Amino acid sequence: MTNRAFSPILLLILLLTACASEVPTENHDTEVILRKEAIPIITNVETNYPEKEGWIVIPTDSTELNITVEATNAETLLFWAVPTGTETWGERELIGYDTNEDDGWKITWDIAGKSLHHHVIVQALGSDGKTITDETLNITNE
Predict the structure, then answer these.
(1) Cβ neighbours of 127 (radius 10 Å)
(2) pLDDT tens, 69-97?
(3) Which residues are registered as beta bridge partners of 4?
(4) pLDDT for 95-120, tens place per residue?
(5) What does the alpha-carbon distance between residue 123 and residue 120 come to, in Å, rounded to a whole number?
(6) Which residues, other chains included, contact 42 with Cβ-Cβ below 8 Å and sequence gap of 6+?
(7) Could you give the CA distance from residue 129 to residue 142 in angstroms, rounded to a whole number?
(8) How are beta strands 132-141 and 55-58 bridged, if at all?
(9) I need a labelling partner for 108 at 20 to 30 A (CA). Which of 13, 23, 77, 90 fits?
(10) What is the pTM assigned to this prediction?
(11) What are the DSSP E strand ranges found in the chain?
């Protein structure tokens, strides 16, 4: 008789547990989709000078370098000048940043009197506060 009394209670507990359980795969897929949407994407980087064989060639007497970027899911764009060579990231210089997408992602770098043979790294910081994407331009004087 005690077995008969426990059977309906046990069955009820099993049913309630099964109904209350979440399907882990559905939650995981939803989280992955949200992360992909938050990753910053740089679709285009342009300057006011022509590119030749992978290098932006800047006339020696130039005074400004304009860099315009098309990016999505970004909160801030950082623009770094890094000397060419190996392990030169520590010698980088922050040449500008932009936090306002409304007028386009862009900076103007004062290059008057500078000898240039650098990489310009454009970093897009994600709107999720965790992700970074970057794009590299090679620049040199004529």
Answers:
(1) 17
(2) 999 999 999 999 999 999 999 999 999 99
(3) none
(4) 999 999 998 999 999 999 999 999 99
(5) 10
(6) 69, 70, 71, 74, 122, 124, 133, 134, 135
(7) 39
(8) parallel
(9) 90
(10) 0.73
(11) 41-47, 51-52, 55-58, 64-72, 74-83, 93-98, 105-110, 117-126, 132-141
